[in-house]
Every structure is written in C-alpha cells, then in structure tokens.
Design brief:
binds iron/sulfur cluster, alpha/beta, about 25% strand, globular, 2 domains, about 325 residues, Rossmann fold, binds magnesium ion, 12 strands, about 30% helix
C-alpha cells in the first residue's frame, strides 16, 4: 500500500527573475516500509519537491496532489501540516550543524523535540533520548547526553539527527542528502544505520541524493529527476544494472561512491537547464550523447516489463550494461 502518493505535482516559484518551474508534472508513490530514493544533480528539483510537499517553500504555487495516509499535504491547513511534520514525517538534512542549536546540549535538544509533541515527563523523555542515542551507536550515550554539537564529529552529529528523526516514531523519514558532507567511509556507516533503523522501526524512508552510487546501497526503488522532470523510475537493481535513460547512465559513470580503484569518474558534460525557461522537448537533449531529431518533442513515459518507467525516445532501452561502470554492491 502506498504511504505517500504524489500525483502530477507541479511546483512553480515566483522570483524577481521570473517563475522557476521547479517541479514539472511529477508522479510517484512510496510504499509502506519501502526505502525510496530520488536522485538528480543539484537544481533538478528534488529538494524543492519534498520541501514543497512539507509546506516549507515560501511562495510556492503547487498543483497536483500529495496523499499521505489519505490526506492531501498540499491542501492541509498550516497547523495540521505542522502536526504532521516531526510527528508523522520527520526530516533529516545535509548539514546537522545548521539543524542543531550550538548553545544547547544534544540531549536537551532531543528531549525538547519529544516534549514539544508529547506529554511526557522530563525524566521519561531523557530516558528515551539516551536510548535513541544508544540505538544510533553514540558510544557512552548516557555521558554524551550532556555534550554540545561542536564536541561531536560530522558523522556523530548526523547520528544525532537520525536519533532525533526517530524520536517520535514517524511513519516516514525524509532524508535530504544526509551523507553528502561526510567522507566515504562515514557515509557508508550512516547509510547502513539508516537502513538498519528502517528495518528495526518499520519506518518508510524517502532519501534524496545527487549520487546514484549512494542510493544504490540502500534504496529499494529510485526515481531519477532532471530539469524538474521524472526521467526514470524503477527498482534500484534494474535502474542500476541496466539504466535505460542516457542521463541515468551518465549519473552512474559520474558517481564516486565506492568506486573501484582505477575506474575513472566521468562527469556529464554541460549543465542542467535553467528552470526559468526549461526546454520544450526532451529536457536532457542538449547534453545527451544519443539525441535525435525527434527529441525536440518531449518523450512521454514508457513502461518496461520489469516495471521501470522511462521518459526517452530511444527504442532499445534498456541500454547495454557494458556502457556503465559498476558502482556499489548493494
Ligand atoms: Fe537523449 Fe532523446 Fe532520450 Fe532525451 S529523448 S534522453 S535527448 S535520446
Ligand atoms: Mg538539494
């Protein structure tokens, strides 16, 4: 069953320079208990997509629907949406330092978060906070309860954020580039932790990353976004094993995560389109090595036997696996 069902989502953001067409008719659903990944370069619209669903993009004009447990988050009253945030859906961001208050202890901040949403005694909240810190493997959690954010490493702070994210037992955890600021080894540890917590708590995870290799380690299914559009969506193994879309293949070749020594990293030449005036035809056409005349017309989504959906005119997709490099074993 779908926990989150997004249908024909459009997000326009009026700015001084004109309207930014950040999300253009994107549909996807996240099943209960699933680890769903959204991947794309910066500026692809993936962060705006989740933030607009959560009512966090000031001035955004949205249409479509985002059903969460039967309620449309796009039309929910601000107060009701605040109740959903934190309690039913929690968010973990890239930079824990900006999410944690530097002048309060880690423990105090977790306790406050719990007590802002639940009527529990300070002592009970503290016990739960220590239990959570222990669960995310902060060593000596009882003593570290009184530590300040700057006394933790980047990886430890991200563990704290995961503990906070779990503190209210949310149904959905949204993680936006949670490991991007960390080195590769710590990234892998945090990803494994997220995966374990998902299994243990039964939470559903929606994770955003610019790195397909990172998502390949944890995600059951992935959606590839570019220029505000959905280009490919399917099971991780299918999308990574034989990417059908030229952009997905390019993302794989450019992922540095867990890359075998000696395998070169090949960035995608060029830059994503401006979302102020996105192209009329295929959004990837000016960077695509396979572009054809017909690509001046926007391709619609095609569905393949393995359930993968792809927006590309190429007939014989999926492309040969030989054109991609192995990235991470999942
Ligand atoms: Fe490339 Fe054309 Fe496919 Fe777009 S539709 S990705 S330009 S082949
Ligand atoms: Mg982002």
């Amino acid at each position: 069953m779908a926990l989150l069902e997004v249908t024909n989502l459009v997000v326009d953001i009026p700015t001084e320079d004109g309207t930014v067409h950040a999300v253009r008719d994107v549909s996807f659903s996240v099943a209960e208990g699933e680890f769903f990944g959204i991947v794309g370069e910066s500026g692809s619209g993936k962060s705006v997509l989740v933030q607009s669903i959560m009512g966090l993009v000031a001035g955004a004009e949205t249409s479509g629907a985002a059903l969460f447990r039967g309620r449309d988050l796009l039309t929910l009253a601000p107060e009701a949406l605040r109740g959903v945030r934190g309690r039913e859906i929690s968010m973990i961001f890239q930079d824990p330092l900006s999410s944690l208050h530097p002048q309060y202890t880690i423990g105090w901040q977790i306790v406050e978060q719990i007590r802002a949403h639940e009527k529990v005694s300070g002592q009970a909240a503290k016990a739960r906070a220590i239990e959570l810190l222990d669960k995310v493997r902060i060593p000596d959690a009882g003593a570290r309860f009184d530590a300040y954010p700057h006394q933790f490493s980047g990886g430890m702070r991200q563990r704290v954020m995961i503990a906070m994210g779990l503190s209210l037992g949310p149904a959905l955890i949204i993680a936006d580039e949670p490991t991007t600021a960390l080195d590769s080894t710590v990234q892998a540890q945090i990803l494994d932790l997220l995966g374990e917590m998902r299994e243990e708590t039964g939470s559903t995870v929606l994770m955003i990353s610019h790195d397909l290799g990172v998502l390949s380690r944890v995600a059951d299914r992935v959606m590839v976004m570019y220029g505000g559009k959905r280009l490919e969506v399917g099971a991780s193994a299918a999308v990574l094993g034989a990417p059908a879309h030229p952009y997905t293949a390019g993302l794989l070749r450019s992922s540095s995560f867990n890359r075998e020594p000696g395998v070169p990293l090949i960035p995608i030449p060029g830059r994503p389109p401006s979302l102020l005036a996105p192209p009329v035809g295929c959004v990837f056409a000016d960077r695509c090595p396979d572009a054809m005349d017909i690509c001046a017309i926007a391709p619609s989504l095609r569905r393949y036997d393995d359930g993968t959906e792809v927006a590309c005119w190429l007939e014989d997709a999926p492309s040969e696996p030989a054109t991609t490099q192995p990235v991470a074993a999942s």
